[in-house]
């Protein structure tokens, strides 16, 4: 990666973003896009910003579909570099995903997406909330000392506007059934990613295998997915009678 190609966002630009965003999710998406553009070199970096507030599901904004899938995998396991940075307030660097044993299943899932390294940096917030900036790299050796320092400086520079946004936009209250649905979807997505790796198949084929296993064993899709994430093998479909 290295230094971004453009100047860092000015306080005025960040204030305009907050004023023009109709909701917190829209603001966070804009802030993530700005971060990805600034931190990227020839092209934007894969970035995501995660915010947790007491009593509500996390709000995650991703710079693209690839980054969104990577973050959904992390939340399915309820553990990983970004969540560690967010919950403990310290930067987390995974220089080589393939050889990292701190988050074995998560590492396997993101490796299947072609990710070589991950950097997660906390963003300071007021009490009652926590946030982190997550950056993904498809090549090794990207997050050197200078780059880590640059990402940490950027995270510090957007802390103030994020704190303002949290005050301006109240938390969205999700019904309990919707919370469960969101978590269930993330678990299924993570299981699909592992099936893709284990069977060297497409996402569509992995989803088909998961549904076949659920029907063959008369088990809920969420239960099968949870078992797979915990190390179980994919049940084989029953042969036709």
UniProtKB/TrEMBL annotation:
It comes from Arthrobacter ginsengisoli. Pfam families: ANTAR, GAF_2. Keywords: Transcription, Transcription regulation. The keyword DNA repair does not apply. Residues 168-229 form the ANTAR domain. This is ANTAR domain-containing protein. Gene3D superfamilies: 3.30.450.40, Winged helix-like DNA-binding domain superfamily/Winged helix DNA-binding domain (1.10.10.10). It comes from the Bacteria.
